[in-house]
Amino acid sequence: MAHKQAKRRTKKVVARMQLQKIKLGKIFTLLFAITVLVATYQLSLTMFDKDITSIEISGPFQRVTALHIEDAISEEIDAGFIGADIDRIQDLIVALPWVDQARVVRRWPSRILITINEQAPAAVWRDNGLLNTRGELFIEESRHIPAELPRLSGPDNSSAEVAKRYLTVRKQLIPRGLDVRRIQVNARGSWEMTLGNGIDVRLGRKAAVDRMDLFLNVVTDIITSRGTEIDYVDMRYGNGFAIGWKDNSQTPISDPEKARQKMLLARGIN
Asked: For residues 266 and 159, what is the distance between their CA atoms, to the nearest angstrom?
């Protein structure tokens, strides 16, 4: 009985060993086939690849030059028409200062076409940074700052939030004939902005969004009618705001809607 059991065990062990050999054989065969394919592909690239003979670069160039682009991608171009990594070339171009987007395509037999879009600065961040029209800080230290751009500032890592608020407010002010010259957020999170006509608007730290809504819906109507007389607007009141006049007087307004209606009637608007 014990002899029969030993034979069965021996047969099972042999079967397992044979199965393992079959599996290992298949794995080695597959690895060998992959190696051959890779080697064949690399050999084909070496034998049939051609040099890139033409690079065509198009776009509205103001800050970026074709020479900047060619210098950035020279190593990839040396890899040849097929060997060049198009995605890598695109990444290298987008990494250049002032480049916003890039599109790179091959054109048989030996041309590379590149189309770029430059960044459009929308505001200055702190002293020398530049924000684009999406509120992204694309240059931290610029040598040339366009004088007409508004100035934004705030704590570290707040550029995206401040820029978003600026773009939203400006979009709502423009139809009212107003614009923003400056937005500043101090270390305590208190917001203040200066309009294009020089009027300071103090929004404070708490409920800044609600105060901004009140400013846009009520105060802007007062500013457009009497802007030349106003020095500042203080929105840091729990139930209204205060207007500081250029004659150094101040008018607290505790019922904003009533003040707005009174002003509209004075202008003959129903």
From this structure: 41
Token output for 53: 């003979």
Task: Classify each residue of 82-109 as buried b or exposed e, where b means 16 or more C-beta atoms within 10 Å of its C-beta.
Answer: eebeeeebbebbeebebbbebebeeeee
pLDDT tens-digit readout, 82-108: 889 999 999 999 999 999 999 999 998
pLDDT at residue 207 is higher than 70: yes
CA–CA distance, 270 with 160 (Å, rounded to integer): 40
What is the C-alpha separation between 88 and 131, in angstroms, rounded?
25
Q: Rounded CA gap, 114 and 54, in Å?
A: 11
Average pLDDT over residues 237-246: 90
CB 35 within 8 A of CB 94: no
Alpha carbons 155 and 132: distance in angstroms, whole number: 19
